[in-house]
């Protein structure tokens, strides 16, 4: 694993539009549209109706998305016992695979399982979950996703109270000389992205802020420019 530490000057904002906000009847066209607009990643929310009160994409749908996509798929597992599904989602096309600390009893083992399956491993923290839960697995993480809404639904209001947690995570990554990327998901848009960037995030999941506007390329450019 790389030990190069990103600095404030070397960080580059990455925009990961969430396909949860796409038009599901035109999903292939939506993938092509959002990539042409400048997306760096495609964020795919997987929900099981148990860990969160909603149902979304399974492996067959992700495999179809992968057939159309040219950008990496950033797959966020909001499911119970994610270790049972790691290989299935990697085979379907997940390039980044992220599991919740709250859902994985043997988190260290699950992260190693993700890497062995061929994807970049990441951990998600819900808004109320402290960053100390990462102390013994942070060196295994390619990325760390902080939820700035409670998971399960799109279109929620940004929870600004998570920003100090983002700051502490970014400081810990820098202090330990890691290359772990800090990602944030929930309520990200033109009015919130700069504060998340200043706190230390560099990967931004945006749903309605991108899919809900007529000119998606202009919006992605706006979000990227807001990071200065």
User: Treating each run of at least 4 consecutive H or I residues as one helix, how many helices?
Assistant: 8
> What global shape is seen?
globular
Quaternary class:
single chain
Largest sheet: spatial strand order: 1-8-7-6-5-4-3-2
Mean pLDDT: 92
C-alpha termini separation: 29 Å
Q: What is the class in the CATH system?
A: Alpha Beta
- Output the CATH homologous superfamily: Aldolase class I
Any overview of this molecule?
This protein is an alpha/beta fold and 228 residues long. The chain has one domain (14-226): TIM Barrel (Alpha-Beta Barrel). The protein contains 8 helices and 8 strands, in the order βαβαβαβαββαβαβαα. The protein has helices at 27-36, 59-68, 86-92, 107-117, 163-175, 193-199, 208-211, 216-226, and strands at 14-17, 42-47, 73-78, 94-100, 120-125, 143-147, 181-185, 203-206. An 8-stranded parallel sheet has the order 1-8-7-6-5-4-3-2. Helix 6 links the parallel strand 7 (181-185) and strand 8 (203-206). Helix 3 (86-92) runs parallel beside helix 4. The chain is globular.
């Amino acid at each position: 694993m790389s030990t190069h530490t990103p600095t404030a000057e070397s960080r580059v904002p990455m925009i990961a539009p969430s396909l949860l906000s796409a038009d599901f009847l035109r999903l292939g066209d939506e993938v092509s549209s959002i990539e042409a607009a400048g997306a760096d990643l495609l964020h795919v929310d997987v929900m099981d109706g148990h860990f969160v009160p909603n149902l979304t994409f399974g492996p067959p749908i992700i495999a179809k998305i992968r057939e159309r996509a040219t950008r990496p798929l950033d797959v966020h597992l909001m499911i119970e016992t994610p270790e049972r599904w790691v290989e299935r989602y990697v085979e379907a096309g997940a390039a980044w695979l992220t599991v919740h600390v709250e859902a994985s009893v043997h988190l260290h083992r699950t992260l190693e399982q993700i890497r062995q399956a061929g994807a970049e491993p990441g951990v998600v923290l819900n808004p109320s979950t402290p960053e100390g839960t990462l102390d013994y697995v942070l060196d295994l993480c390619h990325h760390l996703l902080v939820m700035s809404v409670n998971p399960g639904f799109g279109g929620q209001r940004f929870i600004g109270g998570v920003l100090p947690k983002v700051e502490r995570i970014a400081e810990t990554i820098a202090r330990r000389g890691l290359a772990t990327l800090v990602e944030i998901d929930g309520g990200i848009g033109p009015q919130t992205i700069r504060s998340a960037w200043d706190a230390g995030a560099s990967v931004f999941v945006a749903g309605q802020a991108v899919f809900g506007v007529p000119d998606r390329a202009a919006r992605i450019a706006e979000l990227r420019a807001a990071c200065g």
